[in-house]
Amino acid sequence: MVEAFVLTNADSDDLAELKKELMILDHIKSVHIITGPYDLIVTVEVADMRELADVVMGEMRSISGVRETLTCVSVG
Question: Does the global pTM surpass 0.90?
């Protein structure tokens, strides 16, 4: 299993709505609206790195309002 934290910047002013859209995705375990240089932190759990790439690059980034992501993979 691979667990990652995806720091996300949004174009949307409605972060609560973007949070709901992200939570619909299968491998998203949590979404938190945060302060600081990023708008959201998203916890993702997948089987392997290929699946992580599919979720972040394919699913998350295809959602309107997701501007950029920074993926941090848990190593312990």
Answer: yes
d(CA 23, CA 27): 9
One of 3.30.200.20, 3.40.50.300, 3.30.70.920, 3.40.50.2000 is the CATH number of 2-73, namely 3.30.70.920
Contacts of 29 (CB under 8 A, 6+ apart): 43, 44, 45
Who's near 64: CB < 8 A, 6+ residues apart?
Answer: 11, 12
pLDDT tens by residue, 19-46: 999 999 999 999 999 999 999 999 999 9
- Per-residue pLDDT reduced to its tens digit, 3-18: 999 999 999 789 999 9
